[in-house]
Amino acid sequence: MRRNRTTGLALLALAALPLTGCAQATSGVGTGPSDGASTSAAATTAAPTAPTSASPRPTSTITPVPGVDDDAGRLPDSCSGLITAGRWDSAFADAPLNDPAAVGNPVVVPKDDLTPVLQPDGKQLYCVWRDPQADTTFLSIRVATVDSTTAYPHLKSALNGYDCSLDGYGYRCQEISENSQYPVTDGDTYYTRGDVGIHIQQSNVTTSGLLDDVIAHVF
């Protein structure tokens, strides 16, 4: 068997962190991202009252930003809507997308640390770029609707050993490790914000800034 090209992995930085075909599933799991902003004006009467400060979206359980509703996202219709066209071709996006030999037919979405907090009736988008002949080289992105009241605390307790941080809007965690079978680097990245969960897995693929690119297409 042959091993694909790139070795090494430089995943996203802490702040500001796509190509045809994809799998969108609705079998008891969810996604449902969309961004917006809301403010509440100060109320005035004959006897002026104190301004009412806008409150964050009720579902936010991370770091609320008063007056701004930044928690909702929009699930793209296809995998090509998750990433910037052409930006990742040399890294992974020129590999076959959701090839049945690699992901099954129908597509089988593996369990991960988003699984316990998925919305029961939502959608999800699962995209895998992988040459079926490759020993290990691949990249997958899962975007799903999660229970915003449990996603953050669950990931916070479940992802032991990950490098985690709050970025002002969401919670991101990443683990970089050496592959157990091949001399390449693997990456595992989670992000949750409001009712959206993102999971990126990759092996032998370098993608500095990928999570931020996905976030920009979802929110």
What does this structure look like?
12% of the residues lie in helices and 21% in strands. It is built from four helices and seven strands, in the order E-H-H-E-E-H-E-E-E-E-H. With 219 residues, it is α+β, with helices and mostly antiparallel strands. The radius of gyration is 19 Å and the shape is globular. It has a seven-stranded antiparallel sheet with strand order 1-2-3-7-6-5-4, covered by helices on one side.
Give a brief rundown of this model.
The chain has 219 residues and is an alpha+beta fold. 12% of the residues lie in helices and 21% in strands.
Number of helices: 4
Number of strands: 7
Q: Give a quick account of the main beta sheet: strands, pairing sense, barrel closure.
A: 7 strands, antiparallel
Dominant shape: globular
The value of Rg in angstroms is: 19 Å
Structural class: alpha+beta
Taking pLDDT < 50 over at least 5 consecutive residues as the criterion, the unreliable ranges are 1-69
Helical content, roughly? 10-25%
Q: Spatial order of the strands in the main sheet? A: 1-2-3-7-6-5-4
The overall average pLDDT, rounded, is: 76
